């Protein structure tokens, strides 16, 4: 048994002790390995270890499934329990729904979320900090691939042209798998571990470029509550290029060659339209 398997089994036992003898706990999967499903007869809970500190605010605003309780263990871990959603993840073709645009707008307009982020000392993600971080990652990678340097040069040259008009709480991972809809047609956006304060164009660009045909952007943004301006287009394009470069460098560190090729192809297309 490797270390990961041992620690997971230990956590499962601790959670079962916490909940009581009728409950059975199993890992829920996911990249972090911190999520669990608890069952007792017909009852079901979603448990998370050391989840986002602003989960209570997200729950109160109806952005995530209802938070039922929070408990701190003797080892310092914080366990949260949320109501189980009887529903499904959204598919790629669902992302043009008007309620997706409306929920993302609600998140970006939430002063409560923004205040919470400020109180926990979150440092805003600005074009300058993004550019500097990617420059450092490229240097550390040791690669001489000219396309990646071209991307960094584009970001550096244009970073002062994409000044955010306002900073909001961005989810930063709006993949369709993170959108859940229940049997009452209530929509949620889950998995907030990577959220930060940034330009709303960060989330908007990733979503529109990935899921919405260009000719439908204006209609989608109408439901979000913004016009499609040249300034917004430029900012979205900048952030999508930065995300593609970040993804290339990430998969290079992991040695995941198929993903590297896929993201490089996307980066080529994006820079061709710069």
Automatic annotation (TrEMBL):
<dbReference type="InterPro" id="IPR052077">
    <property type="entry name" value="CcrZ_PhaseVar_Mediator"/>
</dbReference>
<dbReference type="InterPro" id="IPR011009">
    <property type="entry name" value="Kinase-like_dom_sf"/>
</dbReference>
<feature type="domain" description="Aminoglycoside phosphotransferase">
    <location>
        <begin position="30"/>
        <end position="224"/>
    </location>
</feature>
<keyword id="KW-0418">Kinase</keyword>
<protein>
    <submittedName>
        <fullName>Thiamine kinase</fullName>
    </submittedName>
</protein>
<dbReference type="GO" id="GO:0016301">
    <property type="term" value="F:kinase activity"/>
</dbReference>
<keyword id="KW-0808">Transferase</keyword>
<dbReference type="InterPro" id="IPR002575">
    <property type="entry name" value="Aminoglycoside_PTrfase"/>
</dbReference>
<dbReference type="Pfam" id="PF01636">
    <property type="entry name" value="APH"/>
</dbReference>
